[in-house]
Amino acid sequence: MLILPSVIGIIIFCIQIANASKFSTWTEAFNTPLNTIYCISVLLWTTYFVESWKRKEAKIADTWLMRDFVDPTLERE
Prior knowledge:
Layout: H1 3-18, H2 26-30, H3 33-63
């Protein structure tokens, strides 16, 4: 699941390196609107990933009949 964001990040980094000659400093070269777009896309992807994992985890719990399982060995008084 991390392949897509990492490939997009590498592509954006390469674009910024290629455009670095247009700017006077490296800081200006890496402060582009692409960073904002990438951050928003990673935010949305992370939300999708977490929600899909919750669905998968619930499906596995239902399959193994572990939905409301309480482990009695964890209770200590």
